[in-house]
Amino acid sequence: MEHFSIATEAEKSADFRRVLWTGKHTQLVIMTVPVDGEIGEEVHEVDQILTFVSGAGEAKVGGQTRKVVQGDLVVVPAGTKHNFINTGPNPLVLYTVYGPPEHADGAVHKTKEEADRLEEEGKDEPPTS
């Protein structure tokens, strides 16, 4: 059994992205988007569910824009263009579930720049089995 106090795990990690758990069909990731930062506009081939732990931001999903705050949950279906932007004075902290996994098992990306570089280099690939 894996057990997390998810808000505590998310709040104590200053990393842009940290994979907490990877299963055969899903993956649990925590993210911290710095002040004035963003996840970056992207499209995944997997479904994604994001739950916001603290901070304030803006969700742009499939051409729609909404404000997000602590306790909000946003679903991003596979193939949908999306971005999440920190609009508040503090880090935007969230956890997300990908189905199937989207990132390398155990991946830790300190910054968005590091995450982008590793993705471009093909060093952030999900497990194949």
Question: What attributes does this structure have?
Answer:
six-stranded antiparallel beta sheet, Cupin_2, three-stranded antiparallel beta sheet, globular, 2 helices, Cupin type-2 domain-containing protein, single chain, RmlC_Cupin_sf, 12% helix, RmlC-like_jellyroll, 129 residues, mainly beta
- Span between termini: 20 Å
| Average pLDDT metric | 95
Low-confidence stretches: none
Strand content: 35-45%
Q: Sheet bearing the most strands, described?
A: 6 strands, antiparallel
Counting DSSP E segments of at least 2 residues, the number of strands comes to: 9
- What is the molecular shape? globular
Number of helices: 2
Which bin fits the share of residues in helices? 10-25%
**Could you tell me the radius of gyration in angstroms?**
14 Å
- Strands of the biggest beta sheet: in what spatial order? 6-3-8-2-1-9
Which oligomeric form is depicted?
single chain
Structural class: mainly beta
Domain Cupin type-2: 30-98
Organism: Virgisporangium aliadipatigenens
Protein name: Cupin type-2 domain-containing protein
Biased composition (Basic and acidic residues): 103-115
Description of the molecule:
The chain starts with 5 loop residues before the first helix and ends in a 9-residue tail after the last helix. Strand 4 and strand 5 (64-69) form a beta hairpin. The strands form two sheets. It has a six-stranded antiparallel sheet with strand order 6-3-8-2-1-9. It has a three-stranded antiparallel sheet with strand order 5-4-7, with no helix packed on it. The chain has helices at residues 6-12, 112-120; strands at 17-22, 27-33, 47-54, 56-61, 64-69, 73-76, 82-86, 92-99, 108-109. The mean pLDDT is 95. The chain is mainly beta and 129 residues long. The chain has two helices and nine strands. This is Cupin type-2 domain-containing protein. Residues 103-129 are annotated as: Disordered. Residues 103-115 have a biased composition (Basic and acidic residues). It comes from Virgisporangium aliadipatigenens. Residues 30-98 form the Cupin type-2 domain.
